[in-house]
Amino acid sequence: MGELVGIVLAAGLGTRFEDGNKLLATIGGDADAADAASSETDERDPLRRSDDPIVRRAARTFAVDAVDHTIAILGHEADAVREAVAAHVDETRRNPSYDRGQSTSVRAGARAARDRGADAALFLPGDMPCVDPTTVEKIVATYRDGGGDVIVPTRDGRRGNPVLFDAALFDDLLDVSGDTGGRALFDTADVRRVAVRDGGIHIDVDTVADRDRLRRGQSDRAPDSGSDSDFASDSGSDSDSDGDRS
Predict the structure, then answer these.
(1) Tens-digit pLDDT profile for residues 111-168
(2) Is 168 helix (H, G, I), strand (E, B) or coil?
(3) Domains in the chain, start-ordered, CATH in brackets?
(4) CA 148, CA 138: separation in Å to the nearest integer?
C-alpha cells in the first residue's frame, strides 16, 4: 500500500479578510464549542486550541494515522505561516505564483505528491479550521476500500473539503487554472461522495465576520459562491448517501 499525502493550501492573499493575514488570525472565544458542534463525534478536539492560528488548526486535521505525510504550500507571508504550521507538517513548499489564484497552489501540491510517488493526495484549504480529523479517516477508508478517482465529503447534499485525488489525476491537476481548484475535474472523473455529520467541511474563514461567528461558537455558516477556499463546494445538491457515484 503506497503513501497518502495531505496538502494544506496555505499560500493565498486572503484579500477579503480585513485584519491582516487570516491564516495567522486566532479564533479565540468559543472556538472549542464550534469544533464540538461541527464534529462527527460531538466531542472537542484536545489538540486544537482556540488561541492557535487558523492555519495551524487546519494542519492538525491531517494528524491521523491515515495520512502518511503532510505538506503545506506557502506563499504570502511564507515565513510566518511556516512557523505557524512547522510542528504539524512534514515539509513545506513555496508557491512563487501564489498571487495568481488557488490553482497555482493546487498545482504545487499535486507536483509535490507526484514527486513522492504517492497513491493519492488530500487537499485542504488552510482557512478551514474546523474539519473533524475523523472525516479525513472516513475519506481515506473509502479510497482504500476501492473508492473512485476523487473522494469528496458531503453534508446536507453539499460537497465540502478536504478532497482526495488519486495519483491518476495528478497530471490533470497540474493543468487547472484560476480559482476553480480541483472542481475542474469533477465532470470527467469518477467521483465518490461520502456523507459525514461534520459541519466543518463547509466552514472557512474569509472575513472578520466569519472569524467572529466562530468566536461566538457559531459553526453553521453555509459556504457562499465567493469563498476564497471554494476548492470543492457547489451550490447545488448532491446525493448524501455513502458510496454514491456521480
Answers:
(1) 999 999 999 999 999 999 999 999 999 999 999 998 789 999 999 999 999 999 999 9
(2) helix
(3) 4-221 (3.90.550.10)
(4) 14
